[in-house]
Amino acid sequence: MAAVPQVRYRRVAAELQRLREAKNLSAQDVVAAVPGMHLVKLSRYENARVQLKPDVVKSLLDFYECDPALAEVLIGSLRGNRRPGWEANYDELNPLHHDLIRLEADAVSIRAYEAAYVPGLLQTRRYAHAVISSGISKTPSIEARVEVRLNRQAVLTRAESPLKLVAVIHESALTMKAPDGVMADQLDRLLQWSEMPNITILVMPAYAPPHPGQTGAYTLLEFEQRALDLVLVGGLLGSSWVEEATHVDLFRTAFDEIMATALDLGDTRNLIREKRDQLK
Q1: Which residues contact 191 (CB under 8 A, 6 or more apart)?
Q2: How far is it, in rounded angstroms, from Cα 211 to Cα 201?
Q3: Which of 51, 52, 85, 223 has its CB 3.0 to 4.6 Å from that of 228, i.e. a possible disulfide?
Q4: Which tens digits make up the pLDDT trace of 211-253?
Q5: What does CATH list as the number for 93-278?
Q6: Alpha carbon distances (Å) from 14 to 29, 56, 96, 97, 227
Q7: Backbone phi and psi for residue 18, each to the nearest 5 degrees, phi listed first
Q8: Is the CATH number 2.60.40.1930 carried by domain 6-76?
Q9: 229 with 248: CB under 8 angstroms?
C-alpha cells in the first residue's frame, strides 16, 4: 500500500481541531462522548503525531456532525490505496519529494509560476542535469534526482485523465546560461509541450508591470475535492507546504492575476521561438 503523504495527515488533523473548536467542545467533552478516545490520543490526532486511522477519524467527524461531503474527502485522503509506484525505488529522497510525487499523481491540475527556471515537469534531461548539479544539495546523486524529475512527467502523458498544467515562466528563465545546446533544446521542448491540449505555457515578459509572482515561485496542486488543494513554496534551503484553505485561496487568486499579466499563448510561442532561434 502506498504511504499517505504527511501533508495529508496534517491537513486532516487541522480539520479535526477546527471542527471541535467550532462546536465549542473541550477535549474532555470529546473524550467523554467518543468510545476509545482519551486525552493523549485526541491531542496526537489533532497534531498529526500518530498515523491517523480512518475509522477513528470517522468517529470524531460523526461526533462533530461534519458535513458528509467534507467527511468523505477527509477520510478518503487517509486511505493509501494506490499501489506504490516508481517512487518506491528512491528511498533516499526526502519525505517532501515523496509526498510531491504522490500528490502530483492524484492531482487533477497544477498551476505553477517560475521566476528563474523552467518548471521541473517540463524540463529536458540535460536542462534538469544542469539545474540540479548547480544546487547546494548533492544528495541523493545528481543522476538519481534527474531520473526522478523525468519520471514525474508521466502524469502529463498518461492515457487516462492526464494532469492539466498551467505554467507561467518568467522571461529570464528562458535565457539561463547553460552548456552548448541545452537551452535551445529546452526551448524546443517547451514549444512541443505547448501543443498538448492539457498543457498551457505562458511567459511573463521582462517588461511586465508589478504582479504577485514577484514575491516568489510556487506551485498550486488542485484535486477533485477542493478541500485538499495545496501550495508548494520553494526556497534555497528547501520547500514547504501551504495548507490552510484561506491561504491556498490567496495563492489561487494571485495566480489568476499572474496569468492576466503574462503574454498570451500566441505571443508566448513567438517569444520562445525567437529566443530558441537566437541560440542556433
Answers
A1: 269, 272, 273, 276
A2: 17
A3: 223
A4: 999 999 999 999 988 888 999 997 655 678 998 889 999 999 9
A5: 3.30.870
A6: 18, 15, 19, 22, 12
A7: -60, -45
A8: no
A9: yes
